[in-house]
Design a protein that fits this description.
The chain has about 290 residues and is α/β, with parallel strands linked by helices. The chain has ten helices and eight strands. It has one domain: Alpha/Beta hydrolase fold, catalytic domain (Rossmann fold), CATH 3.40.50. The chain is globular and about 55 Å long. The termini are far apart.
C-alpha cells in the first residue's frame, strides 16, 4: 500500500478532483464568465500588484462604506491552474452584504514551488492589511476563503507563526471559510499530483495546514461537496477537528447537490447555507 489502504492507482483516484465530475470545464468557464460580469457591473480595481513578479497581483471590489469586513478569496486549480480573473464571481453577493472583496493571484506550479505560492499569498494578505482603507475595509476584520488548492492556501493563511515576517500582527485573519481543502499534503506527495507540486517530505509537512494550525482561536467554516472522494472529505474532517481542539469555533456547512467545482459558486446565492454562515462569522448577518 502507498498510503492508508490504497495502492498507487487508488490513491491517484482519491486525489483526483476532476474525476468526481463528467467534465469540469463548464464549471471553470462559469468562474471566468461570472467573474467578468462582476468586473463589468461593480466598481473595482484589477491587476493591482502586491509583489514584484507579474503573477503577484490581485483584483478588489471596495466596500460601499468605510471600515467594512474584507473577504479575501484564493482560487483553486490544484496550484497549477486558474487565475484571479476567474475568482470574483461572488463579488456582488458580498459587496451587497457589506463587505469588500479581494481575489488573489499567484504564480502557478511547477513554475513556483508550494513554498513560494504560500509566501505570495501571505504577501497578498499583507498588502490587504496595509491597504485596507483603499478597500473601504477594516484591517481588523479580514476573512479568508478558498476552494480546493485555495482551501489549502487559506489554511496556510490562518496558520500561526508567519505574520511577523511580513510586519503583521499575529492572528491577522479573523475568520475563514475553507472549501474542499487539502490540509495534509503527504498523500499529495505520494500521488501523481506530485508531478507538478514537486513536494518532498519536509516541504509537504511545512506546507500542511494540519501541521501548522491557527495560533489563536477563530471561527472557521469548513465545507466539502457530497460527491468528493473519501480522502478529500477526510482531509476537511481531520483539519476541522484539529482546529476545534485548539479552541476554534468550527462549523461544518454542507450544500446538498453540489460537487467539488460548483460548491464555491454557492457564494453567488445570498441565501445559500455557505453564504449565510460566512456572512455570520464576518459579522454581516445575525
Amino acid at each position: 500500500m502507498i498510503y492508508r489502504y490504497w495502492n498507487q492507482a487508488e490513491l491517484d483516484h482519491q486525489m483526483s478532483a476532476r474525476g468526481t465530475v463528467p467534465d469540469a470545464l463548464p464549471f471553470i468557464a462559469a468562474y471566468a464568465r461570472e467573474s467578468a460580469r462582476m468586473r463589468a457591473a461593480l466598481p473595482c480595481k484589477v491587476e493591482v500588484p502586491y509583489g514584484p513578479s507579474a503573477a503577484e497581483r490581485l483584483d478588489y471590489f471596495p466596500a460601499r462604506t468605510p471600515k467594512s469586513p474584507i473577504f479575501v478569496f484564493i482560487h483553486g486549480g490544484y496550484w497549477r491552474a486558474l487565475d484571479a480573473a476567474d475568482s470574483s464571481f461572488m463579488a456582488k453577493t458580498l459587496v451587497d452584504a457589506g463587505a469588500a472583496v479581494v481575489a488573489v493571484n499567484y504564480e502557478l506550479a511547477p513554475i513556483a514551488s508550494l513554498d513560494e505560492i504560500v509566501r505570495q499569498c501571505r504577501a497578498a494578505i499583507a498588502w490587504v492589511w496595509t491597504h485596507a482603507n483603499d478597500l473601504n475595509g477594516d484591517r481588523a476584520r479580514i476573512h479568508v476563503s478558498g476552494s480546493s488548492a485555495g482551501g489549502h492556501l487559506g489554511g496556510m493563511m490562518v496558520a500561526g507563526g508567519w505574520a511577523q515576517d511580513f510586519g503583521l500582527p499575529e492572528g491577522v485573519i479573523q475568520s475563514a471559510s475553507l472549501l474542499s481543502g487539502l490540509f495534509d499534503l503527504e498523500p499529495v506527495r505520494l500521488s501523481n499530483c506530485n508531478e507538478w507540486v514537486q513536494l518532498n517530505p519536509a516541504s509537504a509537512w511545512r506546507n500542511s495546514p494540519l501541521h501548522n494550525l491557527p495560533s489563536r482561536a477563530l471561527p472557521l467554516i469548513i465545507s466539502y461537496a457530497p460527491n468528493e472522494t473519501e480522502e478529500f472529505k477526510r482531509q476537511s474532517e481531520i483539519y476541522g477537528a484539529a482546529c476545534a481542539a485548539r479552541g476554534c469555533a468550527v462549523d461544518y456547512v454542507m450544500e446538498p447537490g453540489t460537487n467539488h467545482f460548483d460548491l464555491p459558486i454557492r457564494f453567488m446565492d445570498p441565501q445559500a447555507a455557505l453564504t449565510r454562515a460566512t456572512l455570520r462569522v464576518m459579522g454581516l448577518e445575525g
